[in-house]
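Milestone 3.1: sequence recovery, worked example.
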């Protein structure tokens, strides 16, 4: 069941005891919903992801248009539609130790390995180097910006599980705007804290059922 922007606004209005939206206007509420989506995506990059074929540049250094590379999956041929060989993640330091000149290796149309450093989330490297004159596509998963809502009827792109966090963020923004009294400041702080606590619980739950984590614990 998909949730709409109105679902988030109504939930936050109930917390603010402003079910009739007397204090905040629809346009303002929609801006807060979009801010809430961006806040969630900042804390949980995997909240909005896209898995699509991307055309590689010649050589080893590659970049993405999304916010952060999550994984590289497989080759997708010269047309971006033909599934091919899987691509293995390796440590760049190990690659450098065993083959310092790997950036200058013979170019190819099939990628076998990729290297990624989280400190440069939009950049990754592939081996062998990509052919200069032939198209090479791979399938990659990227964290992307959430689609902004422009109407209360617009569907939130994130999973419904993020609904409570989105509501808390909108309520936090509401009480921050009207924080003329100590009570409002305290309520804003509570919703701000609840936002992060909810996402932390979600993260812990995801880790608990992650097959790799469970394998390490057994």
């Amino acid at each position: 069941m998909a949730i709409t922007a109105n679902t988030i606004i109504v939930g936050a209005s109930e917390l603010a005891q402003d079910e009739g939206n007397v204090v905040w206007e629809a346009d303002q509420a929609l801006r807060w919903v979009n801010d809430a989506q961006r806040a969630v995506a900042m804390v949980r990059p995997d909240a909005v992801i896209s898995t699509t074929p991307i055309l590689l540049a010649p050589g080893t250094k590659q970049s993405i248009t999304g916010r952060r590379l999550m994984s590289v999956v497989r080759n997708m041929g010269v047309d971006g539609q033909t599934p091919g060989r899987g691509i293995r993640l390796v440590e760049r330091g190990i690659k450098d130790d065993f083959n310092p000149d790997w950036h200058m290796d013979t170019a190819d149309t099939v990628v076998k390995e990729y290297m990624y450093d989280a400190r440069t989330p939009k950049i990754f490297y592939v081996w062998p180097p990509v052919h200069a004159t032939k198209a090479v596509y791979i399938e990659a998963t990227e964290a992307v910006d959430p689609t902004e809502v422009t109407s209360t009827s617009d569907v939130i792109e994130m999973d419904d599980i993020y609904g409570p966090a989105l509501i808390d963020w909108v309520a936090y923004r509401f009480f921050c705007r009207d924080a003329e009294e100590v009570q409002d400041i305290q309520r804003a702080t509570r919703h701000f804290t609840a936002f992060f606590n909810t996402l932390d619980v979600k993260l812990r739950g995801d880790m608990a059922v992650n097959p790799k984590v469970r394998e390490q614990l057994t």
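Residues 49-143 form one domain. The longest helix spans residues 182-208.
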